[in-house]
Every structure is written in structure tokens, then in C-alpha cells.
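thought: fold this chain, then report.
action: predict
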Amino acid sequence: MGNVDPEIIALSDPECRDYIRQGQERGVQGRIIESWQRSARMGLNPYHRNTPAPVELSQFKRRLEQNLEIVELYQFYIRRFSGLLEQLGACSFVCDTDGYILSRAGYGKVLHFFDNYSLSEGSTCCEKVIGTNAPSLALITREPVVVTADEHYTKTYHPAFCAASPILDENRNLLGCVEITKFFDPHISDELRKHLLNLTISLSDMIRNEVFLGRLIKSSPVHSAARGGVPGGPRILRNVDGPDDGPRLSFSRIVGTSPPLVKAVQTAKVYGRKEGNILVLGETGTGKELFARAIHEEGPRRDGPFVAMNCAAIPLELAESELFGYERGAFTGAKTEGHPGKFETAHGGTIFLDEINSMPLPVQAKILRVVETKRVSRIGGKREIPVDARIIAASNRNLADEVAAGTFRKDLFYRLNVLPLRVPPLREMKGDLHELLTAFLRDAAAENGTPAKRISDGAMRRLVAYDWPGNVRELRNCVGYLGFTVEEEEILEHHLPPEILQGGSETTGTQVTPGEPGNFDSLERMFLVETMRKFQGNAVEAAKSLGISRSTLYRKLKKHLITG
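observation:
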């Protein structure tokens, strides 16, 4: 037998034994062989399909809610990589600590390949179910890994090239993992292998960094951006059983006197007193949900429910059940008493469908039927339920262009675009910047229990020169950052975040946030310096304030050359 591992010999299934021996003889790396051995001992045959069981909806929803922060952050960042994934012909997953897929994105053909083997949202990549694979190995080893072609234990997955990286918090506690996958090509270069692995590491690091920053500042930019709502608004999928419990917001909360904003507010007030469907168009972060809430409060439906749904944040498997509801026994995992959908829940009030352009065409067709008939049929049900809800839809893309591209139904577009409303970006409202900053600084001061800070002329010039690609949301979170880090009464130029000091008009269209590589180290150093100064060098209190262990704090202080 030569140098063959004795554990291989002990395996009872001769097919498994021969399979692993052959892999070892051709030089398959050690941790892959170890995973093969575990897979064999758990009774998996490499020549069988080894596909996971069908998704149970109720269990999937529980997992989503338990991992909401990770899912929101993943969805926010993966949108930035969407073009690159398409170019690479790759897709991406984010999994929880048990290997269950929470969300996916990317190239359709690769996603379809995994659909054929039941690897979709809610199913598991667990090693004991499908054998050796990149996500399970990343979760087990807590290290970035590449598993390619016949390194997968199950032959079903040999066509895939997979890179995965664990998401760890500051104390190396496991939060989940991210994976990037493409079809295997025997001619794939080492450079591309490294590129894909580095991409997964960057993605997991950005999520990890944002989780850490979320402990440092109360209003994390990506948390708000991923919610797709106004600051202080509801989180995605929270309170899925009833009306949205977010704040009641009127037009008085919209700050500014610039002509584009005044026009938008005046138009929205008129719409509030009418009954037609509204289509709100505006860039990410402009406050589309704030306008939708204010319109609801302005009109005769103000005492009815306001039900918000971020269409981009709902996995395809959940979209129909969330919108239209389901009857008991409609599918595996369905509640015994059934479940009303968002349209039913919004009866007598307003339903806000944010990022409606994200909905697939089959779901768009069902939304159109509800719009036309004012009736909804639950999944698995035969009766039609009358619904009386005003629809406010929103998109950060031009829906007319989406119609021309064939990704959005023309008939639904016309049904929704009865009352069009454009929310202007912040770069068109530079005259409002001082008033907005003053209002946000006042809010930050009230939240932190400190006096409101002033802004120096130099800092104000920098803030005005910056184009604010993340719009009002980015501005508010910048103020939250300054309110946390600046202890002086006046905010000076050197206090500003790096992206603003380095920015200007050339930054338009590229949203930069503290969670991105390159900015995180400088931000982290600033937070550490300020925290150590606040606690007068007391590492115990500083670590407690940051929510990290003392050893982690010392490691970070050493990394940034900070002395107590």
C-alpha cells in the first residue's frame, strides 16, 4: 500500500477507498483528502448525486432573520461586484455558520447549474450532506480555500471552480462565509485563481470590517444603505407578519430649499392627496422611502398601514409568498394557518415596493394582475381576496430603460407610472448642504448627549466640493462618524473621512464607505486613537467600549503603531 493513509484502508466502502487512494496518489492537497475521508465516513459515495433536501420555507426565514446583518451587508457589497461577476461568468453565495445558503448573486448559467442540484437559497453546503466543497471547508478551517474540479468529493460538482472565505469577527468567532464560483476551465491561470480567491477575501473582509465599524459608530453607512430606507427606518424582513412599524414621517422632516427639492416636495404633496399609483425614481440614498412615508401621511390613508418591502433584498423563493401570501400546506414548511402577504397586510393603506426593478418577470406579471384586479390569490389558494392598497413603487434605475432592455414589463411600468416623482441627488442640492449638516449635527449631538459641533470654513469647503455619490444617506452617516470621532467643539479639515479629503468632483458615481479596503485601516486607526485618548490609555475600558478582547486591542494597537 506504500504511504497510503491507514484511515483510507479502514473505510468500509471499496469505491470510496479507491477514490480517496487515487486522489492521494495524484497529489491532492492534505486538507482536501482529510475532508474526503470525513465525507466517506459519513456514508457519502462520491459517485452519487449527494444533493441537499428541498428547502423548508419557515426554517429558511428563521435563518435569514438570525443572520440579517450579514445578509444585508453581503447584498450591499455584492451589487458592486455584479458587473465583474458577469464578466467572469461567476456567481456568489453567502452562507451562515452551518453552511446554509442565505443569498446568491451573479452569472445566471452558473446559478442554474446549482439549481439543478438543489443548491439555492435555503439549502445547505454542509460537508456531511454534499461532501467536500469550498464553503464547508472554509467554515471548518476558518481559512480562505479554493476547491476546484475533481477536488470536490462528489463528482456532481466536478464542473465547478470554487473559492470561499470565512467571515470572522474581531475575536475570530465565525459569522458565516462567502463563496465565488465559476465553471472549471483546465486552462484557468494561476493569476485568475488568485484573483477569485482575493475577491472572496475582500468581500468577507468588507463584511467583517463593517460589522466591527458598526460597534464603533451607531449609524453604520452600509446598514442604512442595505436597508434601502431612511435613517432609523425598518430593517429588511423585520416584522414580516404585519405592517411596518417604522416611524411616521411627514414632509416637515425633509430639509432643504433648493429648487429641485422644493419641486419634488410640492409634487409629492399633491400626489399625497390623490389616489393614483406613484413611481419614485432616484439614486441610492436620496430618501425615496422618506418621500413614500410622507406621501402616505399626507393623504386619506394616513391611518391605515404603511407596508414597505425591499424587493432586492428578498430571495426569489420568498418573493411570491411575501407579496401574495400562502395557504396552509402550500409547500413544505408553510405555517399551518397560512400567511397573509404584503398586499393583504397593506389593505386600507399603502404598500411601498422599493427597488421594484429587481423583481423577476414572472413575479412582475402577478403584481400586474393585483394592480389591475385589486385582488390577490395566495399561493396554494383558490379564492381571490379583495385588496385596497395604494402602490408606491421605487427604483434607482430608469424603468423606461429597463423596459427597452426587456427586463421590466411595459404594461406594469405604465400601470405604476401614473404619478411619476423624481427625487434629486444631493449634488443638485449643494445649496442645502449647510442646512442639512446643521440638522444632522444637531441630531448626532442629541443622540450622543453632547453639544452640537461647529464646522470650520475649511471643512465646509471640502464638504461642498465632495459630490456625495451616496447622497443624503452618505452625508448623514458622515456626520455620525464625525460626531463619534471628534471631541473638539469645531470640526476641522483633518477630522474629515479620507474619501472626502481625497475626493471632489471626480468622485461622482463611485460611492465610497468606511467599510471598503483602503479606507478601513485609516478609519480603524482614528477610532483606536480616539478611544484610547477617551479612556486615558486604559486598555481594559477601551476594549470593553469597542466590544473586542484586550488581546485583540493590543494586536490592533501594535499593527497601527499606537502607544498607550
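thought: worth noting. DSSP finds 25 helices and 16 strands in the chain.
final: C-alpha cells above.
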